[in-house]
Give the backbone structure.
Amino acid sequence: MTYAILDIETTGGSTEKEAITEIAVFRYDGNKVIDQFSSLVNPECPIQPFVVKLTGINNKMLRKAPKFYEIAKRLVEITDGCVIVAHNAAFDYRVLRKEFSRLGYKFERPTLCTVETSRALIPDMPSYSLGKLCRSLHIPMSDRHRATGDARATLELFKLLLNKQRNMTSRIKYPADKKSFLSLSGNLVEMIENLPTKKGILYLYNHDNELIAVKHSGNIKSKFNRIFTKNNPKSVAMQREIKRVDYELLSGNLINRIVAWTYRDRYNPKFTPCIRKNGIKTEAFSNNSMLLVDKGHHIGEKSLIYIENQKVIGFGFFELEWQKQNISILKDRLTKLEDKPSLRKIIQDYLKKYRVEQIIRFDE
């Protein structure tokens, strides 16, 4: 699924007269930014004084900026086939639609609000305003109340939310007269061409966007190809049901296993159900509390698995080196895990045979 993470600054004033003064959009495919656009916009009307004070954008700055109709085509293109993601998406989407309606164009996209999603996935935060939430989660921010700075912060927040819950389908709001905007394709060639040949996790969905299989592999495209070379009854049944493919690039071998286990345990997908064995024997970890640090989604990012008092607490991904040392910050950003014997055994069996990049021990 592809997302258009955006932020809009406006003139302020009444709903009917309010106009865009600045917009920034990051087109994100769930793994990387694949396109971006930002621009000041001449609103052809005065900016409210309180907005000038808040954003630093004044009327003089916008005199030579393009008018909305001059950037409208670019906005249609960069958001085509995307879910609009914004912090308080109802506001940004309303303003954007209003601008397009003035041009006689009906702009419709599904939307996802990071305020609502944050409340659901990261409960008990002191505030869910973008600035305060990012400070609580130690997400870097710059150029506050400017479109590019706020859109970039929203993108980083969305990445964190996506790591906590990969399939956001249930949180997407669709236009009232559209049943679905999701690109559910039955074209096998198209699906294969869009897959990378890198290590990660493959998520397979049916026409109802139900997760039917989760597979981790050293080569995502090769793994998907192999699904369609088998002709046993289970494989044939799965081939018939696959209508959408998503993937997550993950370089660390252990975190691949953990994330795949998490989705199997949470959704119990039809073709790769979580194996719920009784009487699994596990051992004590070498330390009561520790962090297992390994590769993440990309260069510069690390995956962390946190074990506290001999229990697996959760996993997360961090780019700032100091964050992995700060447990209070770490806990807020972790995807929580239920400490189950099958999960413990995955970690213990892996550590017996292989190494992670670093083990940070807290009880020596």
The longest strand covers residues 20-28. The two ends are 44 Å apart (CA to CA).
